[in-house]
Amino acid sequence: MTTDASSREPSTSLPELPESPQGALPARRHGRRLGLGRLYLRRFRRNRLAVVGVVIFALLVLFSAFGGLFTSYTYDEADFAALTQPPSAAHWFGTNQGGNDVYASAVHGLQRSLTIAVSVSVLTIVVAAVIGSSAAYFGGRVEKVTLAAIHFLLIVPSFLILALVSHRLAGDWRVLIVVLTVFGWMSTARVIWSVSTSLRERDYVTAAEFMGVRPLRIILRHIIPNLGSLLIVNLTLGVVATVLSETGLSFLGFGVQTPDVSLGTMLADGASTVTSAPWLFAFPAGLVVLLTVSMTFIGDGLRDALDPTSVTGAAGGRR
Q1: What pLDDT does residue 165 have?
Q2: Is the pLDDT of residue 162 over 60?
Q3: Residue 19: how many CB atoms within 10 A of its CB?
Q4: What's the burial of 283, exposed, middle or buried (CB within 10 Å: 0-12/13-18/19+)?
Q5: DSSP states along 67-113
Q6: Is 29 helix (H, G, I), strand (E, B) or coil?
Q7: Which residues, 6 or more positions from 11, have their beta carbon under 8 angstroms from its beta carbon?
Q8: How far apart are CA 201 and CA 221, in angstroms?
Q9: What is the pLDDT, as a whole number, of residue 212?
Q10: Mean pLDDT on 170-180
Q11: Closest alpha carbon to 316 in 298, 302, 296, 299
C-alpha cells in the first residue's frame, strides 16, 4: 500500500488563528501581546486632538497650582494706584476697577473652578454609579421606584433651585459642590442603569450569587468595575458640564461670590467693560474656552480608545 508523499511530510505552515471580535484581543507588537492598559494608551495617543487636550489641561493645572509664584500680588490685594489699568510689566493681565491684579485673580479663579468641577464630577459619577447599578441589579420594585425618582428630578427646574440655594447660602463654593452634585447625577445614573441591566445577566454575576456573595459586594466588585470605560468618559465630560454650570451661576451672581473669585465671577465683572477694558473679560474667557476645549478633546479621545468599534480604536488594535 503506497502513501501519498505530501501526507508523510510535516506541515510547515502555521495554523490559522480563529478570527476574534474586533478589539477583543490586545494588539501584538514585535511578537509580544500588548497589555490592555498599553493598548488603550496607544489608541489614545493616535488621536492627536486628545493629546493636545492633555497638554492644554496639564498646562492649565500647572498654571493654577504654580502661577501665583510669578506675581507679588494676591487676588484680594488692591493696588489703588493702578485702577483699571491695561496689561503692563507690573500687572501682566492688567487690573480691574478695584485695583485687583487680573493675573492673580485668574490663577485663583482657575484653581477654584477646577476644584469645583473635578469634585462635582467625581461625586456625581460615584452617586450615579451606585444608584444606577443598584437599580439594575435588584430590579423589580426597587428599579421602578428609582427610575420614577430619576425621571421626576430630571423634569424639576434644577437651575432655579441651584440659584436659590446657592444665593441663600452666600455663594460658599463648598455648598455649591454639594448642590451641583445633588442635581447633577440623574442623567448619568439613567445611562448606567441601562447598561447595567445587561451586566446583571452575566455568568460571573450569577456565579457570585450562587456562592452567596452579598448584593452590595456584587455591585461594587462585579458590576461597577465593568462600567469603567463608561464612567471614565462621563467623568471627563462631566468636568466640562460642571465648569459651564459653575461659570453660568457665578456670572449671574448665584455661584461663587466675593470676596472669593472664580472664572465665572471674573466674567461677570468684565462683561460690563468689554469695550472699555476688554482684558477684564478676555483673559478669564480664554481660560474657560481652553479648559472646556481640552476636556472635550480628552473625553473624545478616551471614548475612542476604550471603544474598539471606533475608527481610532480599531486602527490602534490592528497596527
Answers
A1: 75
A2: yes
A3: 8
A4: buried
A5: GGGG-S--TT-B-TTSSSPPS-SSSTT-B-TT-BBHHHHHHHHHHHH
A6: strand
A7: none
A8: 15
A9: 87
A10: 81
A11: 302
